[in-house]
Amino acid sequence: MRRRCIAALIAMGTTISVPALAADEARAKFMQAAALPARSVIDNERVTVWDTTGSLPAAAHDFVAISLSQPGNAVFGHAGDTVGMAGARAIVIELRDHQVAPIPNNSGYPNAYPRPHIEKILENDRVIVWRYRWNLGEPTPMHFHDKDVVVVYLEDSALQSTEPNGKSILNEYKSGDIRFNRRNRTHTELLVRDAGSAIITELK
Question: Torsions phi, psi of 159, nearest 5?
Fold first, then answer.
């Protein structure tokens, strides 16, 4: 099976292989039984997200790997690639074969991305990956999310989310927290204390 070098996230140790046709659930059970240094933190029809500090078996799907040992680094890998390095924490977003088209933006507000203070890391036919920093006391523009997203927070952050109707909620995140957010949302965000940055993966 093909192996690719995925930047510094590749582990050069022994590879544990899983049959290519194995179901995702069977693969997850295998990984648990093998006592691999990884846990599934999100599992739905669009993605399976792994939090790992070691080498994972060959990926069942294309994926985005985000390094938390070198915060802000992200690479794209393909089904059959291996990813992970002993002692280096990484978030691996496996992309399930359930793509959906972006929904029309009839909100009257711009799409969520791009926006000020954002950097595009990579884009292909599956994802757009952004690196973003919130600035203390500076609200984002009111915006509409036309795509599902996976957000990996790189710092402890307190973000106030406010909808167009004025309804607000304060969300507290820790460095390394991961969230899956559904599309069809309109809001603005305000960093109210500490610092705030994230790697944001938009799903096509």
Answer: -115, 125
